[in-house]
């Protein structure tokens, strides 16, 4: 009633509608933006035959004679054309857990030089199955096999198949390896320019972001790098050839397309210097109500429990992030108790399903602390406890995994490891 041009104080009798609301509803897209799943299933050979036939026919020449710059020029011509009817298919996000990896993952029979050579590839640090779980790699402390983050995904591309502008979950690093085939064209934007990039994207297509605010998290948005560069966004470009790695850094937006039939594999990884960036990301996710892939604080405590294995440099980075978390808990727990909450319960959050331990306000996955109320089964984080419900403070319950007294010994332990670097 309030959005009518002349606001109403009571609901009129009979059938009535608000013209403004009707127009807004009609302007919404019928479905979320995105890519449709192909109706056909391919073997690798069938997909390759289809991809080569498509490219050869499109450019009217053998696939190996088509210059990369010609493909790039045509790609952006297609993207900018409203009337374009070109369709490309992409074997994207193929789980290596189910289909195997392009890298060797098991030991062959021992006893000859070939098997020794094979074994070295199985154990090599550049094998993407090993890289995320190397010593001092933060993701090595995650127990679950998070596909795409801790376990590689494979990609089978064809000419014009696209990966849209995005950055990695939890702003982690990513690494991609091209096993074979035609080049993959990449565009990258430094993490320091991420916010400026997001603003340009929203200004360029405000109607799309209005109907789907989290559009950049859906991997469905492409924009010509020339438009970004005109807005003073730095954009870098490369063609990834077989046998080459491409690494993206935290919060770095990247996009691109395939020049033709190829096969690549990628995974996320997180050296110790990512830890503070990961916390910054979770705080950002909270501000936009995005669901986390994992709990940052739970990961931090898993690292702390095994901190004897850390190098001094990694321990120093863990110590700094832990101090930040303790400071947050001290300030916000005091605010909660000052508000009037007196009851508290110990909870082992790690034994709850993630969707049952999310803040109902910002969707953050909870681990160290939370707040509940007798009127609801849902939880809120310490940032949003007053928004949980309208009940008085006395009806709320503080849920905690650790008391404040448990933090100082852990802080001292990891700090001692960090300071061993200066004992030499």
TrEMBL record:
BP terms from Gene Ontology: regulation of DNA-templated transcription
GO CC terms: chromatin; nucleus
Keywords, alphabetical: Iron, Metal-binding
Residue ranges occupied by any JmjC domain in the UniProt entry: 120-286
SMART domains: JmjC (SM00558)
Keyword Metal-binding among record annotations: yes
Gene3D superfamilies named among the record's database cross-references: Cupin
GO molecular function annotation: histone H3K4me/H3K4me2/H3K4me3 demethylase activity; metal ion binding
Stretches assigned to coiled coil: none
Protein name, UniProt field: JmjC domain-containing protein
Phylogenetic placement of the source organism: Eukaryota, Metazoa, Ecdysozoa, Arthropoda, Hexapoda
């Amino acid at each position: 009633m309030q959005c009518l041009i002349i606001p109403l104080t009571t609901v009129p009798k009979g059938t009535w509608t608000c013209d403004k609301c009707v127009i807004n509803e009609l302007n919404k897209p019928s479905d979320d933006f995105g890519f449709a799943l192909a109706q056909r299933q391919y073997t690798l050979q069938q997909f390759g035959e289809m991809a080569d036939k498509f490219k050869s026919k499109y450019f009217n020449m053998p696939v190996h004679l088509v210059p990369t710059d010609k493909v790039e020029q045509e790609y952006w011509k297609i993207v900018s054309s409203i009337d374009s009817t070109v369709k490309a298919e992409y074997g994207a996000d193929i789980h290596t857990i189910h289909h195997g990896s392009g890298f060797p993952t098991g030991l062959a029979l021992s006893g000859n030089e070939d098997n020794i050579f094979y074994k070295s590839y199985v154990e090599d640090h550049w094998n993407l199955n090993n890289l995320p779980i190397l010593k001092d790699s933060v993701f090595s402390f995650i127990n679950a096999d998070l596909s795409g983050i801790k376990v590689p995904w494979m990609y089978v591309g064809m000419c014009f198949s696209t990966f849209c502008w995005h950055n990695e979950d939890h702003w982690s690093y990513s690494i991609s390896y091209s096993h074979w085939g035609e080049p993959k064209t990449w565009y990258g934007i430094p993490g320091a320019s991420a916010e400026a990039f997001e603003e340009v994207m929203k200004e360029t297509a405000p109607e799309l972001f209005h109907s789907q605010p989290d559009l950049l998290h859906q991997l469905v948005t492409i924009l010509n790098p020339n438009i970004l560069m005109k807005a003073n966004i730095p954009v870098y470009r490369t063609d990834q050839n077989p046998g080459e790695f491409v690494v993206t850094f935290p919060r770095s937006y990247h996009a691109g397309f395939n020049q033709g039939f190829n096969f690549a594999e990628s995974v996320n990884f997180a050296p110790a210097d990512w830890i503070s960036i990961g916390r910054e990301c979770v705080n950002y996710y909270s501000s936009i109500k995005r669901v986390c892939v994992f709990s940052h604080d739970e990961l931090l405590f898993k690292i702390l429990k095994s901190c004897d294995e850390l190098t001094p440099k990694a321990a120093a980075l863990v110590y700094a992030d832990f101090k930040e978390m303790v400071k947050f808990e001290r300030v916000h727990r005091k605010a909660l108790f000052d508000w009037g909450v007196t009851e508290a319960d110990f909870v082992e959050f790690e034994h709850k399903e993630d969707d049952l331990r999310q803040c109902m306000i910002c969707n953050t996955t909870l681990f160290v602390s939370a707040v509940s109320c007798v009127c609801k089964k849902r939880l809120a984080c310490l940032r949003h406890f007053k928004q949980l419900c309208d009940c008085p403070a006395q009806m709320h319950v503080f849920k905690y995994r650790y008391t404040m007294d448990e933090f100082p010994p852990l802080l001292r332990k990891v700090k001692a490891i960090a300071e061993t670097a200066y004992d030499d």
